[in-house]
Write the structure tokens for this entry.
Amino acid sequence: MNILIFSPLGGYNGAEVFLKNLVRHLPEDIDVAFYFEKKNGLSEELSGSFKVFYPLSEVSTFWRLIGRLADLALSYNLERRRILRIHRNFKADAWYINTLNLPKIAFLAKSSGIRYIVHLHELTSMYSRMPAREMDLMITNALLVIGCSEEVSKNASILGAKQVETFYEVIDFEPIKVAASRKVGRKSFGLPEWGFLWVASGAPDYRKGVDYIPAIAKAVGGRGSILWLGHGNSGLKFFVERQLVAMGLSNVVFMGERHDDYYEILNLADGFILTSREDPFPLVMIEAAALGKPIVSFNSGGVSEFLKEGMGIIVANHDINAFISAMSQVMNRSVVFTSSKSIQRARNFDASLKTMDWLKIVQNYLR
């Protein structure tokens, strides 16, 4: 079976790291190729093991210039023909569209009579970014919609998906185990060596709740610090940084995106916070649990489908006072937490164990 996978950014975001974790454990008789809208770190990493394609504008400066100068319709039609040529040469049995952000690919598949599956990683806040007609076409014409959590799958059914399955995000346990075995100090990363270290991970934006950080940092005070890992330099992040300065707080570090040493840094945490206003089924919470870290999170989506008693605390969404109180309970060790329970729970989402389950779902609909 040959599957042509479409994904938007080619970067180290949860929806695309999930793909990387998954495809590395596929059997040899399943061949996948990728078409990424952007050339980025993860897409270039995958190009060492898989066929990876990009839009013409990402391939060369010449085509980027042509795209700017040419009529948009002409540029779009050139790319459509190129994608269909890739499809024929690869002999794809179906297309796999990763995330809701590629309606044009769904439209091309429908108009060309090509079967496609949508893997949905989004909840309602992301729906506002798409025109209703495009979203309707993408979901209702899909052979199958796979939701990354039960919450997402429920929404897919409401949106009119003909067939819906749930398949949770998966992690690659091997590099996490290696990172956990390494003795790395905070000092080597320029982090404070004192106090309780909380780590958050993701794009520092409104959906991820970066604007909650000043209130949290003030509450933590001299007892510890907060490290935020994730790519992004929005005006909101800039405002938060200025707000921290205005409040006289120096216990927050924005480190940006990390890759090669990401798990080593995450392993330095004493606890993990998920401040998202909405999160379908965050990959980072599985990674934090795999490293045995207590988790404090808003009830922002699929978190409650993962976090069990003894792994951390879930509080009502948007209740920042309850969130801060939960963090205090963890820091004061006044709440029961069992590291081994978290690690065992995370093992249930190991790609090496779950990839065949994903393949059975896909093959069942592509017969």
